[in-house]
Specification:
Layout lengths: L5 E6 L9 E7 L2 E7 L12 H4 L1 H5 L9 E3 L8 E3 L2 H19 L4 E5 L6 H5 L1 H9 L3 E3 L5 H11 L15 E5 L3 H4 L1 H12 L3 E6 L4 H5 L2 E4 L5 H14 L5 H7 E2 L1 H8 L4 H8 L3 H13 L3 E5 L9 H8 L2 H4 L9 E3 L10 H5 L11 E3 L3 H6 L7 E5 L3 H4 L3 H8 L5 E6 L11 E4 L8 E3 L6 E5 L12 H11 L11 H11 L4 H7 L1 E3 L19 E2 L3 H5 L19 E6 L13 H7 L3 E4 L1 H6 L7 E5 L4 E8 L7 E5 L34 E6 L2
Parallel strand pairs: 6-15, 7-14, 8-9, 8-12, 9-10, 11-21, 12-13, 15-16, 16-17, 22-26, 23-25
Antiparallel strand pairs: 1-2, 2-3, 4-5, 4-17, 18-19, 19-20, 22-27, 24-25, 24-27
Helix pairs in contact: 6-15, 10-13, 10-14, 10-15, 13-14
Bound molecules: ligand MGD (2 copies) and molybdenum atom.
């Protein structure tokens, strides 16, 4: 007899700003359907295709359900099943041997946010590797340049409550492909639009978001700081600034004014490719509309000057006095509202060697090949470096090293698993107890398990706790349960666990004393147009524009961003979503295509000094001349000879925060034979 369907609450674990609240339909103990939670104040019943496809992912026939050990050559995906005991035995033996012979620094964890749960992404794992004495990983692949740039101006990674943006009268979406990457911001903006708001999109690509907005400004990549300075120039020259606000809440206006003077419309136009008229119109619109809101994306900061771009843009709202008006201000990221005690969660004090090597994850390729301080064990979880990390030629060469012992904990045999000595089965988030914040909305959510672990899968939390036990770590930090840890985290910031459990979510503090402009935690406690701290850090203290270094031999700028149906490389193995996404495309301007004899649907090779990848051309005016664009981190496909776009990207670091420079990549393209 068919069991009555039960609806259970869940949270979407994906590395996406929306952190949706989900409702899961279960029948006979199995998840059959996933929907958006209608009662959650932000999700409001709306979710994307990816989340709807979770049942297909969770029960996918290719899911890894028990530990595996390599039996063939590295790079070949040949494994045999082993037990957890055998896996632990082998890993612990390697850890002990490596620590004794080379020291703990020869062990490197490599993780990101494949699952955003705090316990499973930055909780028990951190405690474990600290105690183990491993090298430190700088987790800078995503937003660190922009986050740092924003912090220099505003002191903390906070913007405004996105729920307020329904009140905005002007919404500028700057380098952010909302329609694909932050769906609920689109809904708020649509609401604002009903009340007369205008939506401006500033992007290099006429993407889905550009087509949805009211006015699209197609900017040359890497020139956003010039545009921000150009807007300031007009605001100041035409007295569209808010003098009392500037007086009361900012420092360094005179220095900024001097810098902005260098960017009259003619100069700004020369760099950005926008017309003088577009620049002037935008600046006047910004100067004359209140409340105005700028959603700053991740795209524009994946450049070598990306930190400064965000730093410059983040000065704009203070110039026109937007902070503090409902719907006025900007938002790059909101993690600063979740003021957890990281130290208590991650316990860096367990590390016996706080001076251990620090390795920037954007340079994992070089790190794996640097034999002057060899990494002997690489432990990968919540991430797929053989797909997402730049300069894949180096990454793969490093992963192929015979003397490197690699463990990968994942739900699927990702491209990284090809290089693993041991693959461990990870639970899906539905199988775990965890706590979720968002880097956009302000609700903390509790996730209680919806189903028990599939096969022999274990959560990251359980894995690292059990490894600690086998390593003989008897600190209290490793004795706790998931519930203990969650209680400790939330009670520390004054949230009752029982309340969280009952409702599923709690909103963070948005009172006056916790928001701009009343609370600006920079050294001066004011919005810093001039930053002494930047000067100390060897950076220009006032926003500047530094053009991206071009490469003569490779004239086309190659921008490889996320696509609509995948989440980074997650879902890249699912037929339904692959079908919706179509082919891995290279969007190319008609002039560039014609010069190279390329037509739509032609297979093309994109290449540079580091590597190549094969894509299918789409000749279109949606990109600028000189810029070629692809979307999505597709899995390796031998049939079409597809390789990661990250064979072309480089390990160079952005101007701030050790950030990644995925989009400051130059390439050439030719028709494939
Ligand atoms: N569907 C989907 N959603 C996702 C993801 C996904 O893979 N798929 N990934 C998630 C993650 S981890 C992140 S970090 C976010 C990222 O999401 P977003 O913040 O939207 O950032 P991107 O999509 O990387 O880039 C946004 C836009 O920046 C543009 N761009 C590139 N260079 C420049 C420039 O110099 N100036 C300007 N103005 N624009 C430029 C690109 O053309 C692109 O359209 O999305 C999250 N959500
Ligand atoms: N060229 C180019 N490269 C990029 C980007 C780009 O725009 N262009 N974007 C960059 C950005 S912004 C980011 S954030 C990174 C993202 O890089 P990653 O964080 O590596 O993202 P994913 O490719 O989604 O890989 C996450 C992996 O975690 C696994 N996973 C999910 N849940 C769990 C779990 O509970 N436990 C374990 N052990 N594993 C789990 C998933 O199955 C998946 O294989 O990529 C970066 N790389
Ligand atoms: Mo990201």
């Amino acid at each position: 007899m068919e069991e009555k369907a039960a609806m259970v609450r869940s949270v979407c674990p994906l590395d996406c700003p929306d952190a949706c609240s989900l409702m899961v339909e279960k029948r006979n103990g199995k998840i059959v359907k996933v929907e958006g939670n209608k009662h959650h104040p932000v999700t409001k019943g709306v979710i994307c295709h990816k989340a709807r496809k979770f049942p297909e992912r969770v029960y996918h026939h290719e899911r890894v359900l028990y530990p595996l050990k390599r039996k063939g050559k590295k790079g070949t995906l040949a494994f045999q099943r082993i037990s957890w005991e055998e896996a632990y035995e082998e890993i612990v033996t390697q850890f002990r041997h490596v620590i004794q012979t080379y020291g703990g620094e020869a062990i490197l964890p490599y993780s990101f946010y494949g699952n955003m749960g705090i316990l499973n992404s930055e909780g028990m794992d951190r405690r474990f590797f600290h105690k183990l004495g491993s090298s430190f990983l700088v987790r800078s692949i995503c937003n660190s340049a922009g986050a740092k740039g924003f912090q220099y101006t505003m002191g903390v990674n906070k913007g405004i409550d996105p729920e307020e943006t329904v009140h905005s009268k002007l919404i500028i979406i700057w380098g952010c492909n909302l329609v694909s990457t932050n769906l609920h911001q689109v809904l708020y903006a649509n609401e604002a639009r009903k009340h007369g708001a205008k939506i401006v999109v500033i992007d290099t690509h006429r993407n889905r978001t550009a087509k949805w907005g009211d006015w699209f400004l197609q900017i040359r990549p890497g020139t956003d700081a010039a545009l921000a300075l150009g807007i300031m120039h007009i605001l100041i020259q035409e007295n569209l600034i808010h003098s009392e606000f500037i007086q009361k809440y900012t420092i360094g206006f005179e220095q900024l004014k001097k810098k902005a003077a260098d960017f009259p419309p003619s100069e700004t136009s020369k760099w950005t490719g926008l017309s003088e008229e577009e620049i002037v119109t935008l600046a006047r619109l910004y100067g004359r509309t209140t409340p105005s809101f700028i959603r700053i994306g991740n795209g524009l900061q994946h450049h070598e000057n990306g930190g400064m771009a965000v730093r410059a843009i983040s000065c704009l709202p203070a110039l026109t006095g937007q902070w503090g008006i409902p719907g006025g201000g900007a938002l790059k990221g909101n993690s600063g509202f979740f003021s957890f005690n990281k130290w208590k969660i991650q316990r860096p004090d367990l590390h016996q060697n706080p001076r251990a090597y620090t390795i920037n994850m954007n340079q994992i390729g070089n790190a794996l090949l640097d034999m002057s301080r060899p990494i002997k064990v690489l432990f990968v979880y919540n991430s797929n470096p053989a797909q997402v990390a730049p300069d894949q030629e180096k990454v793969r060469a490093g992963l192929l090293r015979d003397d490197l012992f690699t463990v990968v904990h994942d739900q699927f045999l990702t491209d990284t698993c090809r290089y693993a000595d041991i693959v461990l089965p990870a639970t899906s988030h539905f199988e775990n107890l965890d706590l979720y914040k968002s880097y956009w909305h302000l609700y903390l959510q509790l996730h209680e398990p919806v189903i028990p672990p599939l096969g022999e899968a274990k959560s990251n939390f359980t894995l690292f706790k059990e490894l600690a036990e086998r390593m003989g770590f008897d600190d209290e930090a490793f004795q706790v349960t998931e519930e203990d840890m969650i209680k400790e985290i939330v009670e520390d910031i004054g949230i009752e666990y029982e309340e969280l459990k009952k409702k599923g979510y709690v909103k963070m503090n948005v009172s006056k004393n916790n928001t701009f402009p009343h609370h600006v935690p920079t050294p001066s406690k004011k919005v810093e147009f001039y930053s002494e701290r930047m000067k100390k850090d060897g950076l220009p203290p006032v926003p500047v524009f530094k053009p991206i270094q071009k490469e003569k031999e490779f004239p086309l700028m190659f921008i490889s961003g996320p696509n609509h149906q995948f989440l980074n490389s997650t879902f890249g193995n699912m037929d339904s979503l692959k079908k919706l996404e179509g082919k891995p495309r290279l969007h190319i301007h008609p002039t560039d295509a014609q010069q190279r004899g390329i037509k739509t649907d032609d297979p093309v090779i994109v290449y540079n000094q580091r590597g190549r990848c094969r894509l299918f051309a789409n000749v279109t005016n949606d990109c600028l001349e000189g810029t070629i664009i692809t979307q999505g981190l597709w899995w390796e496909d031998e049939k079409i000879g597809f390789q990661s776009v990250n064979f072309l990207t480089s390990q160079k670091l952005a101007d701030m925060g050790g950030g990644a420079c995925f989009f400051s990549t130059f390439a050439e393209v030719k028709k494939a034979d």
